[in-house]
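User: Please fill in residues for this 334-position structure.
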């Protein structure tokens, strides 16, 4: 009897990369599902599943995948995956540790420049037929202080780009990299000190129980008045109620956000009334933040460049190829 090929199922993989994935997994039966993984479309025969962050991997989902041996997320972050549930079922979880530090860092500066030079308002005004600059005065970046929270791959790339703008860089990280700070000429300080000194604050920390609402009502009171906040990391690093209050009071001059807490509910707003009170409050706050005149919000798009997506798919396919003969790489949750 011929040996059955391993069944690999990708959920919501970008269509232009499907042929590449199939070609690079010649010994597998490869299937593609256009939607994120959920209880209704779980493939019970799947042995390896590839997902993006829009698939919430819960114990209930895992129960619908009785043959699952490995889960390959097309992302660096894995807070959308219930790791204890995977460990309980002996499902190996693999991620993409590095694919777009420059990509996300470049988007970070797009948001910074969009806010500080009032680009959104400027473009909107011209398109509406009014060609003047009254009320559109911006601020220079040169000699301003940039506070980076999290100096991993993306945060360090932000520090590197900042040098070209003439920014003074300070940073907070619970695990400081002293060699990096010497190389890129920045200083580590405490989080309260960073909030007090920074003209621009940018978040590049992972979301963990310890970093949930890292910026909150208590410490946002320390802000240098008129500062800007940038978040291209995870929405739940910032308490949305505290963020909205800081925008309303003028403590923040503006916020550039690529992520929001519970952002999946914004995509499916019709489900809001079925949410818990906590989720409903967060979703309504998110919409107030999106509509605020001093915010620029992009739809979790910082990673989304042609080059970065190619790197993501390549690494994910390699993760699967290495797992199949029993040599898994980039395993998380060990």
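Assistant: Residues filled in for all 334 positions:
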């Amino acid at each position: 009897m011929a040996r059955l090929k391993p069944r690999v199922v990708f959920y919501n993989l970008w269509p232009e990369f499907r042929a590449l994935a199939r070609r690079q997994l010649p010994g597998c039966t490869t299937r593609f599902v256009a939607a994120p993984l959920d209880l209704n479309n779980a493939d019970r025969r799947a042995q390896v599943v590839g997902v993006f962050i829009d698939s919430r991997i819960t114990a209930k989902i895992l129960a619908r995948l009785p043959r699952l041996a490995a889960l390959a997320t097309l992302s660096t972050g894995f807070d959308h995956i219930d790791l204890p549930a995977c460990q309980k079922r002996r499902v190996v979880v693999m991620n993409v540790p590095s694919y777009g530090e420059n990509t996300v860092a470049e988007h970070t500066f797009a948001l910074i420049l969009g806010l500080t030079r009032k680009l959104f308002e400027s473009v909107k005004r011209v398109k509406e037929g009014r060609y003047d600059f009254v009320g559109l005065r911006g601020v220079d970046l040169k000699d301003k202080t940039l506070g980076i929270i999290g100096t991993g791959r993306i945060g360090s790339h932000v520090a590197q780009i900042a040098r070209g703008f003439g920014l003074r860089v300070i940073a907070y990280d619970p695990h400081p990299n002293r060699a990096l700070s010497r190389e890129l000429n920045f200083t580590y300080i405490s989080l309260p000190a960073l909030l007090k000194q920074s003209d621009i604050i940018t978040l590049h920390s992972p979301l963990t129980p310890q970093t949930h609402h890292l910026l909150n009502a208590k410490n946002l009171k320390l802000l240098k008045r008129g500062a800007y906040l940038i978040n291209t990391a995870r929405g739940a690093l910032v308490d949305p109620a505290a963020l909205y209050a800081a925008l309303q009071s003028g403590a923040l001059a503006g916020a550039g956000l690529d992520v929001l807490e519970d952002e999946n509910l914004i995509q499916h707003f019709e489900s809001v009334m079925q949410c818990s009170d906590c989720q409903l409050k967060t979703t309504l706050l998110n919409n107030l933040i999106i509509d605020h005149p001093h915010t620029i919000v992009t739809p979790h798009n910082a990673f989304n460049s042609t080059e970065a997506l190619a790197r993501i798919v390549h690494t994910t396919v390699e993760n699967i190829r290495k797992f199949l003969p029993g040599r898994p790489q980039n395993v998380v949750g060990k």
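For context: The chain has two domains: 7-99+307-332, 101-297.
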